[in-house]
Amino acid sequence: MKLRASTNYFVAFFSFFYLAGLKYSTAIGSNVRDMIHGITVHVRDELKGYGPIFEEQPIDTVYPEESPDAKVSMNCRARGIPTPTYKWQRNNWDVDIKLTKEHYSMVGGNLEINNPEKSRDEGTYVCIAYNIHGTIRSREATLNFGYLYPFSPEERHAVKVREGIGAVLLCDPPPHFPDDLSYRWFLNDFPEFITLDKRRYVSQTNGNLYIAKVEPTDKGNYSCCVTSNSITKSVFSSFISLIPQADRSKGYVPDIRVKFKDTYALLGQNVTLECFALGNPVPELRWSKYLEPKPSSADISM
């Protein structure tokens, strides 16, 4: 009995000083160490918990209107103690998950939209994470619906031009979103795409095909191929017939048809500046930077 009583006394004595040390350590901050009768007690603020901190925030998303998946996900993840709770807003209005379970669902902090509809779901989204220690809002992220409509089936007029003269074949891309198109042209048979050189150039701004000096071998039927990189879809225009005329020109001075506008870019961002000229003989193009050396990172290509 005496041994048990002394043991209980020691436990009570140790508990008293341990709790006192715990209280003191918590009061003065994290990673505090207290020595109690040779026993080191480690106390961390995490035991008290902390507010949410984002590990992943939603990003701007383009959902293809013709997507076979019929689902889009807006991602959001945060850490915190206790584990954060999530809610979403669209255009500053709360997304009611409970009333629209068939359309919206939550997987962790991710918002999944089933059978997205442009009129109902397009907009600006914000993820909100919260617990008893605080609330945080993510950056805004847009959900847009991407599309690339077919070209008009109307026949395109033939282009007749004298040999040795320059020619421009217009692409005139159909309605689309977003504006991240890439362009190629093929001659007569798909997929024999035109190889670009000093005499032929396809602008990645408007899609037009520029031929500096028309030659007899240019005769044929041309089609513009437009590709949307965001929705991985391509469409093709009706054929345009190019008919060189045998009345060969003796030549003409260069005529710059492809020019670039003032361009703004972030530091370290890649920028493409376009330039192409018609002329006979085929013009030589040179680049320079006004009053400064050309950047060493500049790369010139056709």
Explained architecture:
It is found in: Cell membrane. There is one protein chain. The protein is mainly beta. It has two domains: 56-146, Immunoglobulins (Immunoglobulin-like); 149-261 and 271-280, Sandwich (Immunoglobulin-like). It has helices at 2-28, 118-121; strands at residues 32-36, 39-43, 50-56, 61-64, 71-74, 77-81, 85-90, 93-94, 104-107, 110-114, 123-131, 134-137, 141-148, 159-162, 167-169, 176-177, 181-187, 200-202, 209-211, 220-228, 233-236, 240-245, 252-258, 276-280. Strands 4, 7, 8, 11, 12, 13 and 16 form a seven-stranded mixed β-sheet that branches. The radius of gyration is 34 Å and the shape is elongated. The protein starts with a helix and ends in a 22-residue tail after the last strand.
Number of domains: 2
Largest sheet data: 7 strands, mixed
Tell me the strand percentage band.
35-45%
**What structural category characterises the helix and strand content?**
mainly beta
Low-confidence stretches: 1-44
The CATH topology of the largest domain turns out to be Immunoglobulin-like
What spatial form do the alpha-carbon principal axes imply?
Answer: elongated
- Number of helical segments? 2
Number of E strands: 24
**Mean pLDDT over all positions:** 83
Specify the CATH homologous superfamily of the largest domain: Immunoglobulins
Instruction: Give the H and E element order.
Output: HEEEEEEEEEEHEEEEEEEEEEEEEE
- End-to-end distance, in Å? 97 Å
GO molecular function: cell-cell adhesion mediator activity
Subcellular location: Cell membrane
Domain Ig-like: 52-144, 150-241, 254-302
GO biological process, one term: brain development
